[in-house]
Amino acid sequence: MQILKADDLQRIKERVDLDLTLQKGGYRAKINFHMGTCGIAAGVKKLETLISNEIEEKGIKDIKIIRSGCAGLCCREPMVTIESHELPPVKYCDLNEKKIREIFDRHILNGEIVKPYLLAIDEEGEKPLPSSIEEIPKLQDLPFFKYQIIWALRNRGLIDAEKIDEAIARGAYFALAKVLTSMTPDEVIEEVKVSGLRGRGGAGFPTSKKWEEGRQYPSFPKYVICNGDEGDPGAFMDRSLLESDPHAVLEGMIICGYAIDSHRGYIYVRAEYPLAIHRLSIAIEQARNYGLLGKNILGSGFDFDVSIYPGAGAFVCGESTALMYSLEGKRGMPRIKPPRSTEAGLWGQPTVLNNVETFANVPPILLKGGQWFASLGTEGSKGTKVFALTGTVNNVGLIEVPMGTTLRKIVYDIGGGIPEKREFKAVQIGGPSGACLPATLLDTEVDFDSLDEAGAMMGSGGLVVMNDSTCMVDTARFFTDFSVDESCGKCVPCRIGMKVMLNILNRITLGQGEMEDIERLQRLGQHIKETSHCGLGKTAPNPVLSTIRYFRNEYEAHILEKRCPSLVCIDLIQFRVNPDKCKMCGLCKKACPVEAITWEKKTPATINREKCIRCRSCIQACKFWAIE
Amino acid sequence: MKMTNQVKLMIDGIEVVAERGKTILEAAQWAGIRIPTLCHDRRLVPFGACRLCVVQQKGKSELLPSCFTPVKEGMEIMTNSPEVVESRRLQLQLILLNHPMICPRCEKEGECALQTLVYEYGVEETLYPWDRISFPVDDTSSLLQRDPNKCILCGRCVRICDEVQGIGELSFTHRGMKSVIDTDFNRPIHCEFCGQCMDTCPVGAITSDRFDYQTKSWELKETTTPCPYCSCGCVLAIGSKEGVVKRVFSDPESRPNEGNLCVKGRFGWDFIDHPERIKTPLLRVNGTFKETSWEEALRFVADELETSKAQYGPESIGGMASSRLTNEEIYLFQKLFRESIGTNRVDLDDPGKEAAEGLAKTLGWPASTNSIQEIRKADCILVIGTDPAQTHPIIKNEIHLAIRRNRAQLIVLGSYDIRLSGSTQLSPLLPPSIVLLEKPGRVVSLINAMTQTILKDGLEDKGFIKERTEGIEELREKQAKVQVKVEVEVGKAARAFAQAKKAMILIGSGPWGLLDQKEIVMASSNLCLVTGHIGKESSGLLLLHEKCNSQGSIDLGTLFKEDPDGRRNLLKEAEEGKLKILYLVGRNPFVPSLPFGSQALEKLRLLIVQDLFMTETAKRAHVVLPASSFVEKDGTFTNLERRIQKLIPLRPPLAQSKPDFEIFLQLLLLLESPLPGDTPEAVFEKIVSLLPHYQGVRDGEQWPNGTAYLYSNGFPVGKAKLVPLEEKRPQAQLEGYPFQMIQRPSLFQSGFLSSKSDALNKVSEKPYLEMHPDDARALHIEEGEFLQITSRDGKTMRMKVQLTSRLAPGVITAPYPCPITVEGMESVKVERLKGS
């Protein structure tokens, strides 16, 4: 155990930089395995073991293996980044055992780029690109990376989260050192205020204001809580951030503690994020050993420590007061406000609770100044925002863009558009609290206020892209179902009202709806928004209300024509081949698992509806919307 | 401009001034404007679940839940705008979707808050698609049944059980529409059975089989009268139909209990209709009882009294009365014995008298200094020698509130720890309870040690001591340093007590109280005086007396000339042959398992028993006079906080029974004595004329003059007295009898009345001994084993044992009533029973 002083950080940085710089006598090459949950799910662990064993068997000493987090482009995992003496970092993707062996032999051992498996080359190094490979794609030219500005994700895929030295080498804890040695708590809050940082958890409450409130109440102890209870379907920003750069979050929390005079922090993470918890625990342990957590941090006299609290998996525990109840060992249930948590939160004491991403944004703000942060973004929303881009889009992954970037840019440039020649239909933003925005709103800029205007919500940052095979009534039903299940059950409108909405949606998708149902949904939705207790209930009708607002025709088709235009609601599908549209390709026959389709060359297919189990395989297989 | 604490706002066009921090709902209620609620209960922290209390601000569309939105200056609130009414109607429609419409067979019909609102808002059937979600009904629990189908999840039961009772038997389980209020793992209810959950339930989701299908709510006649059990004096709202009690609720406005009741108050009343109630006077003729008329019985008694008085002198007659009698009855009883007969052999069942007298000596009044509801505002509470959760459950609630809301420091001092000390584990910020355990007989030393520490460390209130007390020098000198085992804890406790803003001491009294009660109380008085914790709100001492009129009995006892022989033990005197006639009112000393029996009975010429039941003692009497129960008589009780409360009879006496008042009156007439008055009211007037502090006190107020806490303007004794004290008797450790056994109070059983309550018997736990695990280990005793306990005089008992470290080593507790520990404590030996 080595207790650090502020100057020691620079020394560690220099040592690690030196160690990791490829040079004569040092490492010949670095292989960086991107081992986030996404990469591990895609099988990167096996590849890493394979190469490690290989290196060991061959007795190679001058190849360094780095186990970092997700590099962002989750859909192309397993992914590795290789840097060698001769070449700048090169990213390979969609790997398997055969490919990694080949890359090992050709690239690592022979310094040759293996083009077929290549994603791109990162020219941001100091080494010039060899002229012979100029035609290969540069990382910075790929649209997925080109439009991103990674501030919160600044260390993604670059450092081993289980090695604090690597984080320090990338600048971790320098902001903390600056804060503890040269800034007063008021100055810290002022800097955050200048930055215009707003909470990344969904509602966008100004962070500095929360901290000011937390500071102003003279009741001790005070608490800092990091909300990592990410529960929106399709969202994984917090997980990825905690897995790849836990120190960014810890540093933000310590700074917050200093600003509000708190000495105790809790990180509430979903128990479903074991890797995040694992890496976070290691990070906390290492930070403690360096004296970056605990008593007398960096010799400044300031004490702060952090514990992890794994949540038991209730969506509602993402609501701040419910989260605090959960932390206290009680049932996660939102409580009344006032008092605000900043006045009486955890165990009735002043508590500042921020989202994972919010805390990760704090250190660079303090290091580079609030002005620097405020230089990006829009009038009311500064800096960048991390989104989990998923759904029917070519590039699925974790992205970070300046506030004010349009949805179009995100979907078509960064996301690479819609695969399989399908049409864009909507983008769902903000999870079960958010809305489905149609193509006409693709030019909406993503910031807190514009999204609010469009009837959506930033939420914590889930972006689900939907193509024309998505039924909007069914989508609304899906999110409503989620909210019904996850309602804590406390207040009447959310508990019962949402269930009524679900029942109405169910009957519409069954073809039993009536036109009055649309009005009923709107009326109930409005009522639930107006009278629900917490943020969850107040926003739970959003998916329904937004789909009625932008896709009313689909509701009408379901009700009036008893037809699901996207062929999703199976009770409204006839499962009949329209011979006029059928191109007689036979794909549907191949897809059918129960042999209900008869087809011969040059004849339209037919479906035996007695055998058909309505599994929609044929619909998904048919490129020509020939099945009705 | 000065920041005022008042906020002015308009509600429905009426200007309302409210305290800052109050809610819109509170302001409206204060102004007499009704806002509908389902989940609100003024005893509880607002919850905001039903969303019916929404109101609107003029010119704004937003709906504000009024139950927790604070008032703001200049607000213009509309409680009934069209939007508000529409929102409420929709809310009710939603609630009704899953609510079973079985109102005609629901016991809540007629007083159901949901039913009332549905009617008021004209809620009609909706066209919403709905499949009813149903839940299993819990009818496996005693006394309380739960039907989650009727439940509207307002959480009032959960919250009252947690926030007020400190039990947490019920909680929300599952999520969304599957949310249901349940016990752990859906087991039958096993708790204090206070029924608070049922009381606060706005619908019929929690009910009692004691009331089910008995009658409809509107047929009930409601009578408010004080509870006949402990000395808290909770106000019961008894619902009866044609003289038959059906249920007990309580009004949240009532004092001291704020609508809270314990199991005895709520369910323990059923003894009044027990078949074993005595219905006619009985005379023993040739060894067997013969029913007789009141005339004959009373004539007989009067003749016997006169004869004995003439032949053997008035001192040959003794009388023992229960402190469950009313003030008026106790007065007449004394009149009868002390004046008409002229004997001093009178026992008023007032074991707390000495304690009270101790206070009278040091402070001025022989009574508790403060009120029950002040406990919740104290920030340090010292509980001495009792477990309020068992003896005075409403006080347990108060302590719990102080811990919960005020982060009060709890100090437990005595021979055993109490469960309440665990409630400080609710949050890491609550100060952990300080537990000072010693063998019985060491309490005075422990209190003295606290006082000494305070004086030694200079934590005393010097100004207060100088101005308002005398005897500090003597206290410092004479009270030499006391040796206690738990010195570190004593230091902690002393500091906590001295440094608290408001500190209270609660002292147990009665059969489960400790030895040396007078000394304990005076030592506690010293502690309050040196720290200045007296004469202020939430600062002082409460004596937790045993019975409903213990304080009245103490007060009335002061009315007559003091007995020159001091305190008497009439039973012993009977044994010694000094008594020819013994007249027992509501007393039952001749239980076969108790030591006084045959010997005393043989020596008595006549035993008269006046009671509700054929007790063991009554069975051995020569004359038995049937008395009336508390719902059949007039009069007043005085509770432990000096509150004088009027009993309201709800029916005529059962069968031929008579109120004790009537019986005494008749006897006085027969003995040709002057009557102080022939109605309880007239006798109360007489009492008031004799007891100046009872003057000008209205029903439900505290003496003197409705004072909540005494001594705010000085002490009647001039300066309060600091008196050095020592333990009365040194602990005699008897060879061969290494354990000290004390009685442990029980929530469900507190004497003969409770033993005749079917409801209480249903939920009473099986009796067991408690022993410290270290002691058990030394004797190779295991949990659940049967033990035989033998006292010095050879009495034995057998019982199962439970091991607990909540006990001082060397101490064994037995449930009350314990046949061995007659005077609170007994040295005993313990043997294992072979083969157990």
Description:
The complex is a heterodimer of chains A (628) and B (836). By secondary structure, chain A is an alpha/beta fold. Chain A is 40% helix and 13% strand. Chain A has a five-stranded mixed beta sheet, covered by helices on one side. The longest helix of chain A is centred in the C-terminal third of the chain and has 19 residues, at 542-560. The radius of gyration of chain A is 26 Å and the shape is globular. Chain B has 25 helices and 35 strands. Chain B has a seven-stranded mixed beta sheet. A six-stranded mixed β-barrel of chain B has the order 30-34-31-33-32-35. In chain B, a hairpin with a 2-residue loop joins β11 (235-241) and β12 (244-249). In chain B, α8 (327-341) packs parallel to α17 (550-557) and α12 (443-456) packs across α15. Chain B is globular. The relative contact order of chain B is 0.11. Classes of the chains: A alpha/beta (628), B alpha/beta (836). At the A-B interface, α19, α20 and α21 of A face α2 of B.
Radius of gyration of chain B: 29 Å
Largest contact between chains: A-B, 41 and 38 residues
Strand count, sense and closure of the main sheet of chain A? 5 strands, mixed
Termini distance of chain B? 79 Å
Main pleated-sheet profile of chain B = 7 strands, mixed
Strand order of the largest sheet of chain B: 14-13-25-24-23-15-16
Shape of chain A: globular
Strand order of the largest sheet of chain A: 2-1-3-4-5
What is the number of helical segments of chain B per DSSP (H or I, 4+ residues)? 25
Annotation, overall tally of beta strands of chain B: 35
- Class inferred from helices and paired strands of chain A: alpha/beta
Poorly predicted runs of 5 or more residues of chain B: none
- Helicity level of chain A: 40-55%
Helix content of chain B: 25-40%
CA-based shape of chain B:
globular
* Overall mean confidence score, pLDDT of chain A: 93
